[in-house]
Specification:
single chain; alpha+beta; 12 helices
Length: about 325
């Protein structure tokens, strides 16, 4: 009986917090600014963070968060990837473009398309070069710079801004949305209106046995693993998330621990410097607790978030989720 009372009390507390999400959302809409020239904790792998921080400040049209978003969109931080168009490395340079715009970023006497210490500085240098080309074009100079990276500076100049090419328009929109995931927020973040529905779905699954790889389908007995649960919870409110936890981390901006609101995704890792190493995710419900599918042999339940492996949180947004590349 004591356990039942405790669970009932926790649920009542959660629902009060969820109601608070809507109240706060109504008060904060259009009044909060996000974004900065700093980087969110762990969003950029530690091996690349100094490069992104340094070279992301190369020119006013660029920022570390914008450069990080562009690199993530291009390669998902994979320095060995090759695209079907033969774009290579972490910055996805075509060999012909590299021949004219690649630089020796680390000063070792070589320009190596595969070396992030050359490729990341080269991406920043190329961005800033394009920004100079389009500086007199109407519109936002950073948007025009990204459009030039995708479609060429001539098309941007001729169009008087981001050209009416769907691929280029989507490229700019995705990276500007992803930028918010890589920036260290300078103020409190807006809550999302979908948070209560996501929590409601997760609550309805309390007590369901865990299943590795579980997506909640009928053939799986309605069971989930951790990221399968969070994915299904946000799908219930119309937001499509990637399947695995370390990709879900980039679906929005990152509130600090003292800014957590119900509905935020909370993440856990054995490497607190690298979001690509995230191994677990839950949905924050308030009071220092989350709903999660913890491991084999356990059930979906309430668990505390304040553990040594707590990595950080994401306030999921529809635009942030849509911006995520399909494969990283």
């Amino acid at each position: 009986m004591a356990v039942a009372a405790a669970v009932g009390g926790a649920l009542a507390f959660v629902m009060l917090l969820v109601v608070g999400v809507y109240i706060v959302a109504g008060n904060l809409v259009n009044s909060v600014t996000t974004g900065s020239r700093g980087l969110a904790k762990g969003a950029v792998p530690a091996a690349y963070k100094p490069l992104v921080q340094q070279w992301g400040n190369l020119c006013p049209a660029l920022s570390p968060a914008l450069l990080a978003a562009q690199l993530y969109q291009e390669s998902g931080w994979n320095p060995t990837v090759v695209s079907p168009a033969d774009a290579r490395g972490i910055a996805q340079f075509i060999p012909g473009t590299w021949a004219t715009h690649g630089i020796d970023g680390n000063g070792d006497g070589k320009r190596d398309i595969w070396d992030p210490a050359d490729a990341i500085p080269s991406a920043a240098s190329y961005d800033c070069e394009l920004a100079k080309y389009v500086k007199d074009v109407p519109g936002n100079v950073s948007d025009n710079m990204l459009a030039a990276y995708n479609a060429g500076a001539y098309r941007v100049i001729r169009s008087g801004g981001v050209p009416g090419i769907s691929e280029t328009q989507n490229y700019v929109k995705r990276i500007r949305s992803l930028e918010k995931s890589f920036a260290a927020p300078v103020r409190r973040l807006d809550p999302t209106r979908q948070a209560a529905g996501a929590i409601g779905f997760a609550q309805s699954k309390l007590g369901t046995p865990y299943l590795w790889g579980g997506n909640g389908t009928a053939d799986q007995g309605g069971r989930f693993d951790c990221s399968g649960l969070t994915k299904a919870a946000y799908e219930k409110v119309g937001i499509g998330l990637p399947r695995v936890a370390n990709d879900q981390y980039n679906a929005g901006a990152h509130p600090s621990r003292d800014q957590l609101l119900p509905g935020d995704l909370v993440f856990f890792s054995d490497d607190l410097t690298d979001s690509r190493a995230i191994r677990h995710v839950g949905i924050y419900v308030g009071g220092g607790y989350m709903i999660d599918a913890p491991r084999s042999g356990a059930v979906i339940r309430f668990d505390p978030v304040d553990t040594p492996d707590y990595f950080g949180a994401t306030r999921v947004t529809e635009d942030g989720a849509k911006a995520l590349p399909t494969a990283v």
